[in-house]
Structures are given as C-alpha cells and as structure tokens.
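2 proteins. here.
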Amino acid sequence: MNPKFMKKVSIVLCVICNILNAVNLSAQENLYKIVSPSGQIIKYVEYDNCYNYSHGLAPVQSGVSWGYIDAEGNPAIPKGKPFYFDAAEEFGKYGLALVWAKGQYRFINTSGNNAFSMEFEEAYGFGEENTAVVKHNGQYGLIDLKGNFAIPAKYEGINRYGNLAVIYNGEKFALFHTNGQALTDFVYDNIGLQEGLMFENRIPVRQNNRWGFTDEGGKLVIPLQYEEVSRFSEGLAGFRENSRSGYLDKEGKLIIPPAYENTDLFSEGLALVSKDNLWGYIGKKGEVVIPLAYSYAGRFNEGVAYVSRGDNNFYIDKTGRQVEEPSLRHTNLETPKLSIIAVEEKMNVSLNYPDLQLRVDKFWEANNGSATSGKIYDLRNNQLIGDGVTFERGKIIGGKFYTNGRTLDINRGEGILLADLQKVIAAEAAKPVAKPQPQTVISKEENEEMIKRYTELGDLFDKATLDYDKYYLIALEFDLEASNETERKENLYRKIKPFQETVDKIVEKTSYLLANDTRMKPETRKALTDAIPKYQAMVDKLRSL
C-alpha cells in the first residue's frame, strides 16, 4: 500500500460509527457474553460494539463513547468515570493501546494512564511490533516502546513491516530498518506489492517502470528489468515481459520462459498458468502437469484444487483426476483465551450495572435489542423498582416504576438512558397528581385507523434509522462521474432521494397525528414533535457531504 494514502482501518471505522450514532435517534445495543478460556460464561454485558480481549481488557462502545472492561465485565478504563474515548483499539503485544479523544491520538497502558507525554495528529498501533507509525507536526515518523522517535517525523508517509519500513518522501520511496538505518536511498517509484513487502528474503522494487528485487538489507540482487513481478513462492517468482509471463529464481535466473498469458504463485509444487483464456498447471521445470483446459482454476490446497469446465464445477487432484469435494480437515489449534462474543440467540438475561447499583432482568430479542417484560432492581437491597419495562435499542421506553409507595406509569418515546432512570423517577414523583381527564370517545373504526397510522409511522422510523447508515456511506463515495462540484451535488441529491422520500413521509404522517389524535399523551406529542427536526437533520447532513 502506498504509505501516502495509508489508513488505520479500525480507528477510522470507530470514528465513522460515532458520527453515525451521533445523528441516529439512538444507538443499537448488542448483547455479548464474556467466555473464560475453559468455555464457561462469566457474564453477559450489553454494549453497542466491542473488540476482543487482550491483557485482560476489552474495548467496548457505549453510545458514542469507548472505554475498556475487565475480565469480569466491569468498567476498568477510565477508572471510576464514564467512558469518554471517541475510539479505542485492543492492547497490543507490549501492553499499549491506541485511543482517540478530542481530535488527538495517544497511547495508554493497561492501567489506563498515558504511556507517553506526546499526543499525535494520527497514529497506527504497535500491534505485535515494537514500533508504531505516528504523525507529528504534519509529518510521519516511527516511535519505539518508550515514545522516542526511532525514525524522525519528517516524511510524507511510512508503512511498517516487522523490522523494516518503507518511507515515502518527495515522490520517491526508500527502505529503512525500524532502528532508523537507511537501507536504500530515495530512488524507487514503489517498494513492495499489495500482498506485502518481503517474501523469501526478496523485496520487489520499481524504478522507471521496471521491477527488480532487493534482499532484506536493501541490496539489489535481481536487476530492474521486468514490466511486472509477483512475490516469491516456493523459490520462484512470476515476471511479465512483452505481455507474456514466466518465472525466475531468487538469483534472477530464468527458469520458465515467458510463454503464458497469465501466471500465478506456486502452491504445493504446481502453478496456475493460462493460454487462450484456458487454465492449467505446470511444474517447477515448466512442464505441463495438468493440461490447460479449464475456464477457471484455483491453487492447490492439501492436494486438491477447485476448477470449472463449461458449466461444471468440481475438484481435481494433482494428476488432474476428478475427486470428491474434500471434507474440512483443519483442527482449531488456537490456544483457548478469554473472549467476548456476540449473543445471537433469544434468551432471558440478567445484567448487572454496579456503577449504577442496578440490575436488569429481561428477555433478549436476538439482533433486536428490544424487550417488553423487563424488570429493574436496586442492587443495594434487591428491591424491585421497575416492572413490565419496555426496552428498545438499549433505552427504556416505558413501564411501571415504584418509589415511596407510589406506582408511576412512565412512557418516553425518545427513550431513557439507564443512567438517568433514578433522576427521571424522582422528577415524575415530584409532579402533582393530575386529575383524570374525560376521554374523547371515538369509534372502533377510527381507533383501528389511528393504530394503523401509528404502526406505519413506526415502520418508517425504523426504516429511516436503518437506511441512514447506508446512505451516509453512499454519500461518502468518490463520484467518478462528476466533472465539477455542481454535478457532484446533483448526483448526490439523486442518490439520497429515496431517503429524502422516506423522511417526507415521516413528516407527513407525524404532522397528521399531531393534528388529529385528540387522545395523544403529552410525552408522545413531545416525541413526535422532536422527531421531525431530527429526521430532517439526517437529510441535511447527507446533503452537506
């Protein structure tokens, strides 16, 4: 990958997700189970998103904020405070994790403290390595585990591969050791391939549109003389010359002349090659082992390859004989470890929130986050404070709540965060008891019609909330068809028109209910009144991209 355009995928995705959640009416919470290395379920927890455990800590997202939980599922970083990171990664091999907050990247240790005094405009985690790429004062460099610059921040881009780094500067590339030693000058147009940097101690390099190879120390060992090259595999690499492909060895010696339209890597002693759009297999001396007779063919794996001939798809062995589809032969030898896994099945769960002194018992609707018969208890005395509680996307929508001998019916269309529940109950209990109002009598037909309208509006709410993420990503796509900003905007408005139409229907149906439902509760009226600008804000956001 060109270092000039490198991206940190997980952090970037976190940031995008937070932007989306900030616009959505509520985030979609998910149920996870924490599983011990022996396979026992330690605890169920509910978060919007999570990554896996490392060093006994797992990054989790609550709302738009990230933090870390410990092996027992309790909030661990920040300690004793609400989550506040805008994005967070897993801890790497050396106990350091990359977090993003207030527009800056920084590294923390497993205690939650800053590992280094310096913050960065951009950073890429240590992972399994002992160096990390960072951006400081607009330039890229490499820091070590102490936060010192192993390679100064003075370059346009860096990609790190183990103990090697490809550095981009002034439209040219150079190879460095991660200790800062320059292994080549800035003389190459490109270093490495999409699959990676070095294979079998050979590094592809390009200069003036001709490819060759260096060794690990940057010494040119195969001259720059090929139109294209592949990586080395089983001692041979493919090359292309005059629109034909062949193979050379690690010293640059011609092994198989360029006689094929296309070639592939050697795998289990055989390589795929093609002529006249038909594929077959050759050996390492160039001999045809399986005739070029297939419209599609894959690499050999454990003695078999998947091929196509006409409309027939089947497996062959290394003699070209058709064989039965192989069974799965792999055994998972991965060492068991502490893990956090999404719950896919419907089930009753009990969720403890020690920081709120609350416990929630409810029936989990898989991939939905909703429940209609939840109970909420005060952990301090195990007293029931909420019954028949309805949850939706992690928020409390309504239910019966008990305080000081009173029963309160609380319903909030916009939802109540669990952290705000006690405050809401106290506020509702402080209100004077309202005198019963005479009910407007409507016919059965009118009642059914009103229920139908509410159902249709609810479906539209769900559709708009789910569709927004899709149209947001569509709006972010680069427009290859537009030649100027006016055309780009016109194309954008056309792409998001279906979402605009959904919101128009929401406004129409919401306005009708606000004007015609004489029995509407005040909290429902407020929720519907607030919904119109919220959904219109989604459209405005898409149109502004």
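next one coming up
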Amino acid sequence: MSIYKRYCQETFTPQGALEDIRLHYPDNFNFGYDVVDAIAAETPEKRALVWCNTENQERIFTFGDLRRYSNQMANAFAAAGIRRGSRVMLVLKRHYEYWFAVIALHKLGATVIPATHMLTVSDYVYRLNTSRADAIVCTPQGDLPEKLRQAVEKAGSPAILWTVGRDFPGLRNLSREMEAAPDTLERVETHVTDPMLIYFTSGTTGYPKGVIHDFSYPLAHIVTAKYWQQAEDGGLHFTVAETGWAKASWGKIYGQWLIGSAVMVFDFDNFEPKQLCAVINRYGVTSFCAPPTVYRYLVRKGIPDMPTLRHASTAGELLSPEVFRKFQQRTGLPLCEGYGQTETTLLMANFRGQTPVEGSMGRISPLYQIALVDQHGAPAAPGQLGEVVVVPREPGKRPIGIFAGYLDNPKQYRHAWRGGVYHTGDSAYMDEQGNFWFHGRFDDIIKTGGYRVGPYEVENILMEHPSVVECSVVGVPDALRGQAIKAFVVIPGSVSPSPELEKEIKDFCNSRLAEYKWIRLVEFVREMPKTISGKIRKTELRQAH
C-alpha cells in the first residue's frame, strides 16, 4: 500500500474519477521522517531517484540510500549550527545532492530556499538580505561559487558558503563533511505549521516576493502526482524542471514519493529534444511533465517512439492547439493541462478519469473549493470572465497547500486574502460542462471597445503564423477604443521585418479572430523582456509603447 493512504481519505465517482479527498496528519508531520524514512524502514531497496547527466554519469538511489545520506547531511548541517528555524538557500541545479539536502533540512526543521543558478549577483544579494539566510549550498560549476561569494560580501551576510562534489577555494565542501558524519539521526521535533519552504516568485511587477509554505505542503501534492501527472507506484516520473523553481516541488519529490513512484532526474544545462527522449526511453519513464515550450520543440524536431510512456502533462503557460493535436497524433497520449501558482499546489487540471479538453485548464481539484468572481466579488456566470479565488471549506481556515504568508509582508498577504478568499489575480471562465479556460493575469486583460480580451487567445493565433517565433499581446492606449491590441513579434533571423510582413501577419490573425479581438498594431522586436524564469514582462512592453 502506498504511504499516502495513511494521510488521506478518498471518494470516487462511479466512473472512477476522484470526487473528494480529505487529508489528515499529526501536528508533527515531517516529510523527511514520515515519508522518506518510513518507506526506507519498510522497503529499503525500493527505487526512489534515478539520476543521470549529459556526461553519461548515472546514479540510482533507493529509499534506504536517501535515509542514510540525508541523515549524514543533516548531521553535517547540525555540526555547523543549522537547526530548527535556520534558513538555507540551495542553488544546486539538478544535482542529486539537492535531494539529500532538502530531506536533511526538513528533518532538522530548517527552512529551504530554492534558487536558480541563473540569477545575477544583485539577485542573490536581494534574496540574502530579504531571507536572512544562514547558509548557501551551491553547485561548483561555472562562475556560481564566485558570484555567491561576491553576493555574501555585498550583502554583509554571515551566511556559510558550501559547495558539493569537489573543493572550491573559499567554500566549504559539504560532500566531504557529509561523508565524515554519522548516518543515524535522532528525530528533531518540528510542527506542521513551521515554515518549510520559501520560494521567490518571478516578480513580473516589482521585486520578487518570498512565498512561505509549511510542513503540511507536501501532502497537498498527492493530487498533483496521482491524479494529474498520473505517476504510479513502482513507476518512474520525469518532470522537466530545475530545482530552483516551485515546479520541482510539484514533480520531483513530494507527491511522487508519497504515492510510491520513483523520480527521474536528467542533469543538463541546454535543452536538446533528442537527449530528453533518449533519457525517457533508456530508463523507461512512465509519466512525463513539461512546460508547453518543451512540447513545442519536440513537435518541431520530431517525436520518436516512446513505448514506456503512459501519460503526459503540462503547465506553466498556454499550450497551443496545434501542439496538443500533433503530440497526441504521434504518441496517442493527450496532453493534460494543469493550473496552479507558486503560492498554491495544483488548483485545476485535466484529471485521471476525465477526458482531457484541448486548451482547457480542466476542472477544480477535489482538494479545493474554487470560485470565479467579478470585481465586486459576485459569482461569475458560466461563460463570464472572473477572477479565480480559493474559498476555504471552513471560514477562516487556510486550505492545505495554500501558502502560509509572504516573507516579511503581512500587508500584502492580507490583501491576497481579502474578503475571506485567496485572490489568485488570474482570470478565467467556465464553460457549460464545468471546464475552466485561462485568460491571463487580470492586469493583462485588454479592454477594447467595451470588450475584455485575454491576450492568450490572440497569441494562440499569432503563433500559428510561420514567421512568428515568439509573441506577446498587450493593450495600449487608443483614443477610439480605450485600448488597442498590439502584438510584439519575434521573427526568424532569415526573415526581414517589413510593412508587407506586418500586413500579412495582421490579415492572417484577424481573419481568424472576432472583430473586437483584431490586432491593430504590430511591432517587430529582437527579443522579449523576460523574468529569470522565462515569463514575458508584459508591463515592460506596455511601457515601451
């Protein structure tokens, strides 16, 4: 029996779809002890982590291995003064040491701050100053150790600097310290409301916010793994995400291990579709999750046979109908979209037992009560655009998996929870069948000629033009319409911008769009302004107009 069943009660429809799930857990629930160590005690040889890299190195870890290595790393951390309440930043790319470290820190009751290696020195300074991290563990690759050393110096931070795998001048070698540490650990008492994770959002407007999740957070990902990604007990799940982003928590550790699936990790820097498919086939991956960008590349480059793959899911940005259709035609697998935020776990998805609807976010997770409301808080009718809000099942009680606070910003947290519901800031509508359709951030909604237009529906059409490599649609001031729809377009290097091409693109799109959604302006740009996580900064595009 998968260990997740200890912590939930499920009910199903006659067709076998999950209808409701209620979670229950002790006040001292700790993923490190109660999941990793518990599985290790019962089935120490059960496969947990399959790791490989672009240099053809490979490591396969059992739950018994993870119990031992995480205990050693916890003892190494503790010897350096890391304890319950400490904050440790992990900048470890996709190195297997990340999994040792994150479990070890959970066991100690410390707060993990995942961060990507792509940040600048000033980005790290901001995170150090904001989080007041006690230590940083980083990859020894590239110039990252030097960047972090500069950041610590500029921030005036007392943070301990560790690296892994090999020595680096001026940094301590955590791998060496871990090897010398005992592999047994007496349980440290923690509380389920303690802060477990701090993720910094990508900061599309203003500075990134520190999003705090507590020790109950992993349990909310049971639904993510089992009913959306359809990972399986004894299977091998592969989510393409770097450990610095919240998507790693969605697909590379918590829900997957709770339901008994091993996790596939491919440690790479530059995405290459053939390599990705080779990994899937070499190790027999059974379920796969990636952002639409990855599927776009796979479709364009050609998808090989992947005989072991039984399920594919996607989230993070809009999936074009063309990619959905071509992937399904080639593999026989529909792409199951899902929706959530750094502040939440999975809120909506095309779940197990439901027929995936092309382009739809699917239906509400049985874990949550969700509503669409207008600007006055009134319920939106089917087909009417509204804001996605999470409604507590018990008034005043925060649902599991929804963040516990913004770091040092209670005012912003109260604003997000105004009216007794969590405001996502995302707009969507629901069709007559109960499927939800994403329209974008409310700040990005275009009001033109008395109509409200979500940019993504226009961008979907734009991306079908053969000369459009990348695009973003925004509303710009217009004396007649209030706002006019403007498209910023990146074209291939082999194509030259021209008035003729602009007209061709507008005609192509406008012939496929309702008149009130017509593109009025096109601007060719070399590249889009983006956040470090790759999201287009629409605010900058509006300001540049």
